[in-house]
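Following up on my earlier message about FE2/S2 (inorganic) cluster. Here are the inputs again, as you asked, copied directly from the submission form:
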Amino acid sequence: MSEASFTVRLLPHGGAFECSGGKRLLDVAIAAGYWLPHSCRDGSCRSCHLRVVEGEVSGAEDGHCLTCQSQPLSDLTLDAPACRPRPASAWRRRPRG
Ligand code: FES
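Thanks, got it. Here's what our run produced:
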């Protein structure tokens, strides 16, 4: 059985990506080419804390979620003012010297 897939929109950037219900938002956002603030990726630093504008995520508290831990439960809109496309240089492999 496959997981449901949800659309995640990032404000004010306007970007969007698809995320299956079993995946963590931060991992999928980065894989889709969007940089979001983060550090520990284990739920302790809270640097990935974003406001949920619309929709449902696992682990939400007071309308916010930790994107490194949360999984979508519906289509989502997140307030991610620091979001930016991942720089093109991050995609290139460095030549072996
Ligand atoms: S990256 Fe540290 S809590 Fe999410």
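One observation from looking it over: Residues 35 and 86 are 5 Å apart (CA to CA). Hope that helps, and feel free to reply on this thread.
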